[in-house]
Amino acid sequence: MMNLIMMPNATGAHLGGWRHPDAWTDTVMNLGHVVEAAQIAERGKFDAVFLADGNAVREMDKPALFAANFPSARPAGFEPATVLSAVAMKTEKIGLVATTTTSYDEPYSVARRFASIDHISNGRAGWNVVTSQYAGDALNYSRDENFGRDERYDRAEEFVEVVKGLWDSWDEDAFPQDKATGQYLDPGKVHTLNHKGTHFSVKGPLNIARPPQGHPLIFMAGQSDRGRELAAKQADAMFGAGDSMESCQRAYADIKSRMAKYGRAPDELRFIPGISIFVGRTEKEADDFYRELQDLISPTLGVHYLSKIVDRDLTQFDLDEELPEVPATVKSGTSLRTYVIEMARREKLTIRQTYQRVVPALGSPVVKGTPAQVADKLEEWYRGKACDGFMISNPVMPRALLNFVGMVVPELQKRGLFRKDYEGDTLRQRMGLPTPASRYTSQGGLAAE
Ligand SMILES: Cc1cc2nc3c(=O)[nH]c(=O)nc-3n(C[C@H](O)[C@H](O)[C@H](O)COP(=O)(O)O)c2cc1C
Known about the structure:
single chain, TIM Barrel, binds flavin mononucleotide, globular, LLM class flavin-dependent oxidoreductase, monooxygenase activity, oxidoreductase, Luciferase-like_dom, alpha/beta
């Protein structure tokens, strides 16, 4: 069964989406909208909502770029774990996946946060593990510069190990809470981690009972070799960033082939690329929607945005020249950057052509057409082993999500590709993922000191 994840993304994922007449008009700091988006997605039987995150207001050192900012670049937005706790109270089945960085946080705090959401939501929590590629994040966390990629991943690897270890702190039946005998907890069923590593020293145990899912789901999105290797070892789901079916097929085969050495079966990780959907009752309606949005992107904004992606100021160049040389990827290099530069070189695109390609979906593939045409494309990718599902990015909120749920979901259900109703008790079960056993499966474990 295909998995569908929804990214609420403020007022829309398209660069000009927030300016569209159908977009929510008020501030993105609106809990009601996040709840409404999650409820619409739940009506559409989506597996989960996913909130991306960062730890800084970006681009303030480039005033022209900053002035061209837009809501989905997140100059302002909720802290995801906090807002998803609130969403948990207004939804029943849909999973709640929040992003938290391993570079500027502590494993004990993160283990507590996600164990809490898992309890609050009765087993619907997921953690999108990111390492923070944006250099400016460091400046808010008492550092002068970001960690290099290898160090970020060394830290992330140890961080995730520690968090999983902390989630195993208590056996499921560790709290008998027997009023008659006066025994509240069973001291033989608590485990002290005693972790001393390169980056972290964490004694444990966690002061939260075992999460309903055993471990909340681990999502990852790192596309580098280190990122993929970590996902193959630890993740339940991985977001993809391919620009075509072929590139997603390669990434899918690659990530699944890395898992055996960690004793994992390929279907223990769901590969979920992002995709941007422009659907209409007719082809014309979909085309019109797409064009209306393109018209909302001024060339100035397009050039500024592309400059931001490729990490070079392109404003001094003629828009109809080929994309000029850009410096090689450095610490803050991203997979989107590499993909955009390679595409421009391969197809000899001008600056204008490049931003027009990238901007409609901020880098992810675009699918446009009637419900049947959109479903055909999703089916082709899914059956062609390019993915296990999709992270649906909605160009305008709430219109695009309402259209997807109202038009595309029924088509996928009719074809037997997507669930008609939720089954299972937890996000893990609904996504067809195994529930991890505690590392202390033998009796007793390490008694608390
Ligand atoms: C769908 C998707 C969502 C992502 N969400 C975030 C995010 O919320 N916060 C973040 O810092 N990075 C996010 N990233 C970036 C990745 O975590 C990662 O840093 C990036 O893909 C570069 O890969 P690398 O770190 O392995 O070089 C996302 C990437 C993708 C493809």
